[in-house]
Design brief:
Elements lengths: L3 H11 L3 H13 L1 H4 L1 H10 L3 H11 L7 H8 L4 H5 L11 H20 L1 H4 L2 H15 L7 H7 L7 H26 L4 H10 L5 H7 L4 H13 L11 H17 L2 H6 L1 H20 L21
Helix pairs in contact: 1-18, 2-12, 2-18, 4-8, 8-12, 10-12, 10-18, 11-12, 12-16, 13-15
């Protein structure tokens, strides 16, 4: 866990960019649910058919057996056919409650394997779990359905499960906020991904293929963005497009600030410092997929040293 010097450095970096700095540190830890082998073994054991059925079951389980249309709407960037190939069939293999129990067991095992039993059993790790849970419990989930569903879940006793679930609630809180910003900016699912790819934050082909959009959908979104003056003929961002991307991220950061205001400056900085080595360990593990599909940015924000 962090030394006093490392803690001071992270606290200084976080001071003016809390929501984004925390996201950059909790997103990699949350993402273990999508890439840790322990999680894939758990979904296979439940009977899920392939990665995507497991993905949608794991992420949608807090909503209960919600219709595919609700999941498509709340996840935002996936084509409906990607969702309907997984749901509601997944609930025929395991109930949402069974999936929720399995994901906590799997994440507890995954984090113990990756970080080590000594780290997971440490006082610092338990402190991180409690701080994350406090921040998540203090989040305003009005208009944020995925965050609200996760926030309503029972507090896990095991520190690793508690840390992951707290971070997941915070992650979905930010994600719900981001979707609201995109809707307000008139950016549909594909337009949002095209802009993100044009900004160099994620691999466009990876986004299109994994979210199951056809090339014609991508091309149509590109044309719409050009007509709005946001994309140049070569597919790069125009100055107006760069401004829109920056505004989307700034508004998302602002909308995601609430939990950190509730947690307070000192405890927020402490959580960031405790998460820093965990995020680095995940990033260095080789588990995260190439192409940065989530789009975690560095840009003008505090860079890792």
């Amino acid at each position: 866990m962090p030394t006093a010097r490392q803690t001071d450095a992270v606290e200084e970096a976080v001071a003016d960019t809390r929501a984004r700095a925390l996201w950059e540190r909790y997103e990699p830890v949350h993402d273990l649910v999508y890439c840790a082998p322990e999680v894939r073994r758990a979904t296979d054991a439940l009977g899920m058919r392939g990665f995507w059925m497991g993905y949608f079951a794991l992420r949608a389980a807090p909503l209960g057996a919600a219709p595919p249309s609700v999941v498509t709407s709340s996840f935002y960037v996936f084509h409906a056919t990607r969702v309907t190939r997984a749901l509601p069939d997944a609930w025929g293999y395991a109930t949402p409650a069974e999936v929720l129990a399995a994901r906590l067991d799997a994440l507890d095992a995954a984090m113990t394997a990756l970080f080590g039993a000594e780290i997971v059993g440490s006082a610092d790790f338990a402190e991180a779990a409690d701080l994350a849970w406090a921040a998540a419990a203090g989040a305003d989930t009005a208009g944020r359905v995925l965050a609200a569903a996760n926030q309503a879940l029972k507090r896990p006793d095991r520190p690793a499960a508690r840390l992951w679930q707290g971070l997941t609630t915070l992650r979905e809180h930010r994600g719900d906020s981001h979707v609201a910003v995109l809707v307000g900016q008139g950016l549909g699912p594909v337009e949002a991904m095209v802009l993100k790819a044009a900004a160099g934050e994620s691999d466009g082909a990876l986004l299109r293929e994994t979210r199951k959009w056809e090339p014609v959908d991508w091309d149509a979104a590109t044309i719409r963005l050009r007509e709005r003056g946001l994309l140049a003929a070569d597919g790069s961002l125009t100055p107006a497009g760069a401004n829109v991307r920056a505004e989307v991220e700034a508004l998302t950061d602002a909308a995601a600030e609430g939990p950190w205001t509730v947690l307070g400056t000192d405890r927020t900085a402490r959580l960031a410092a405790l998460l820093e080595p965990l995020a680095r360990r995940v990033e260095d593990s080789g588990l995260l997929p190439p192409g940065n599909p989530v789009g975690v940015t560095r840009g003008p924000y505090p860079a890792r040293r």
